[in-house]
Design goal:
Structural class: alpha+beta
Distance between the termini: 52 Å
Number of helices: 3
Order of helices and strands: HEHEEEEEEEEEEHE
C-alpha cells in the first residue's frame, strides 16, 4: 500500500518562496534584454535570403584624407549592401573620391538608444539610432 506524503507548512512555504524567486528572476531577465536588429526582418523588407546577411562597417573615402564609417548589412553573392542610416540598398563597388569602398565585419551592441557597430582593427565605431532604423524599415526591425 502506497503512503501519501504530506508536506508540512514549512515545506509549502519554501516551495512558494522558490517559485516566487524563479518568477522574479525570469521577469528581471526579460526587462534587461537589449534590443537587437532583426536580420530576418531586413531580409523580408528587401526580399532577400536571410542566410547571406551580415553586419559590417562600410568604409568610404571622404575626399579629405579621411574615411566615413557607416553601419551596414552586407549581402552575400550580391553587388549591393544595405545602408542602415539611409535605409536603402547601395552598390558595393562604387569608387568615392579616388578610393574604393571596403567592408569590415562588425559586432553590434545596443547602448542608450543607439546600435554601435565596432570591428577588429578599427579604433572608431559607427552608430545608427533605434529611431532611425524604425523610421527606415518599420518597427519590426528592432526586436527584443
Amino acid at each position: 500500500m502506497k503512503q501519501k506524503k504530506f508536506f508540512g507548512q514549512s515545506d509549502a512555504n519554501a516551495a512558494a518562496s522558490k517559485a516566487k524567486k524563479v518568477k522574479n528572476a525570469r521577469k528581471s531577465q526579460l526587462q534587461n534584454v537589449s534590443p537587437y536588429i532583426a536580420l530576418k526582418m531586413l531580409a523580408r523588407h528587401f526580399n532577400l535570403p536571410q542566410q547571406g546577411l551580415s553586419f559590417v562597417i562600410a568604409e568610404t573615402p571622404d575626399g579629405e584624407d579621411g574615411i566615413d564609417l557607416t553601419p551596414a548589412v552586407l549581402i552575400a553573392n550580391s553587388s549591393d549592401y544595405i545602408d542602415l542610416v539611409q535605409g536603402i540598398k547601395q552598390n558595393k563597388q562604387v569608387q568615392a573620391f579616388g578610393g574604393i569602398r571596403t567592408f569590415v565585419p562588425a559586432v553590434v551592441k545596443y547602448d542608450n538608444g543607439n546600435f554601435v557597430f565596432s570591428a577588429a582593427g578599427i579604433n572608431s565605431t559607427a552608430c545608427v539610432s533605434k529611431e532611425t532604423l524604425i523610421n527606415n524599415f518599420g518597427e519590426t526591425v528592432v526586436s527584443h
